[in-house]
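Late entry, evening session. Most of the bench is empty. Finally got around to the prediction I had been postponing all week. Sequence below, unchanged from the version circulated by S.P.
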Amino acid sequence: MEQSKKEMNIWWAILPIVVMITFMLITIVVLEQEPHIPLIIGTVTAALVAFKFGHTWKDIQEMMFTGIKLAMPAILIIMLVGLTIGAWLGGGVIASMIFYGLKIINPTYFLVTITIICALVSLVTGSSWGTMGTIGVAAMGIGLSMGIPAAMIAGAVISGAYFGDKMSPLSDTTNLASGLTGTDLFEHIKYMLYTTIPGLVIALIVYAILGMRFGKDSASTTDIDQIIATLQTEFTISPLLLLIPLIVIVLVIRKVPAIPALIVGIVLGYFCQVFVQGGTPAIAMETLQSGFSINSSNEMVNELFNGGGLESMMYTVSMTIVAMTFGGILEYSGILQVIMERVLRFVKSTGALIATTIGTGIFTNATCSEQYISIVVPSRMFAKSYKEKGLASKNLSRALEDGGTLTSVFIPWNTCGVFIYGTLGVHAFAYAPFAILNFTVPIISLILAFTGFTIAKIKQPVEAIDVEQTAN
């Protein structure tokens, strides 16, 4: 792919972003429609700008394909999560999780409990998406049955899932941030403790306070009893079915990649629908494709259990593809580089540099719609600046995660925001105030940056990090 043949000024560089954001606001806020078309309009605008500055259509097409290729692992996981939800709904796995959860978990401590559970599962699996697509789905059912608002439940699930993802040595984003900056993986994780542990503590305190509103009287005991009775009528409930998510978690702990581990969970769920729940092979196969369907006498159960399947994730898949065509052109045409070079002119202090890195992660999440790019692009842009200021590379790797990994969930058209909406059924604007960890950690990171506390300096001269080579 060729680089831009003509020098691009800042006004042309920001034009695609301004156009996309303008149409996005009009479409979502005014027209109350989906974000696909604004992203397509932004993609067309970016393509025209790239064409004006010397790129051929072949170049532009390759940029879009490269962007989509970057998201292919995420797309595969999205589809497999849809299959997993369908298989576990049909196989009675989620029904069993909700059944025992309603019997054991107190509404007052539910938000705290589910945050800790999601944090532990994500920590040992390294996957926030896998945690949200399995434990998170069951948590939504349990919490809603207890009368807890969906946005609060989703926020607690997200906070826990992203804590584990961010701190796990098995996490792809954690390895990406450390690898691109040349930082030792465990040194990177250890350094993130300064921002992430306080963020988790604050989140748990807030969830404990919010949970006081939901005592045993917050949800009708009769309603919960009716849900439990309906689950027993419609499904074969067994603690043995809880072994299926446990098997998937154990596989990932043993370093089995996420995709084959999820496939095992899907196959086991399919067999459970046939041999435990008594469904026919054809119905179980239809569940994988179209989702599980139930028509019980309890409206809450119907709402919770109608869903899943491959087709339920096609909105998310299409959104991811569209978003990545836009992000691909922005990065590989040099548009983002022009913007970042202009921004760096105003960065003078250590605090400003770290703040700019965090801000760039948020900006990239909003414009390129993919958390991987929010780590890759700033790592390339700022590595030299960190070295020139005598800052250890772990400052950069931590800022990449604090600003990139965590804030991706707040952008409705980012692949993470789209995945959460498709999986938990809650819009980013709704759960944003309750995803406590995800917005407190960047704030804590900014405080540390400007106070200088925990900011590590280079102890001895080192060779410049070839970020481009490391990224490849």
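Two things to note before I forget:
DSSP finds 23 helices and no strands in the chain.
Confidence is low (pLDDT under 50) at residues 461-472.
Will write this up properly tomorrow.
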